[in-house]
Amino acid sequence: MKLTNATEQALAIMAILATQDEDVPASSQAIYQKLSVSQSYVKKLLRKLVVSKLIEGVSGNNGGFYIERDLNEISLLDIVEAIEGPLHSFPHIGVLEQAFFDFNEIAQNGNEKITQVFTQADLAWDEELRKVTIQAVLTNVFEHYGEIPRKDWNQIV
Description:
The protein is mainly alpha-helical. It has a domain of 93 residues: Arc Repressor Mutant, subunit A (Orthogonal Bundle). The protein is 55% helix and 5% strand.
């Protein structure tokens, strides 16, 4: 299984927004310049994060984006699913049934067993990512600073 680059970029967006001055939303321009990717691409990622209710946007001259929920309530799984959708690692396109159609019930039973293994692995993956919040990651990253630093990313670009 491999996540797309969009997941890493979404994590970077969330880190930018989590360290943004609380009174000032981060502009999409500041975000796409920090990520060095196209504005239209960043807008697609921002849209997915908004639809998933992880961030909120404010329109207008001083508009931008901010994190909508408490950082302790946003898990890595929330971000991955916002960008990638729910994980289903086993494609299950019917190749096993087709290859062993002569064995009808045995082939079906084998397919069910394989599917169960991958489903359990997917659930374990989900559970591990669900345990890790944005707050926990930032606290770990900034453990020697005492607190999570804030800046106005709009002023940096």
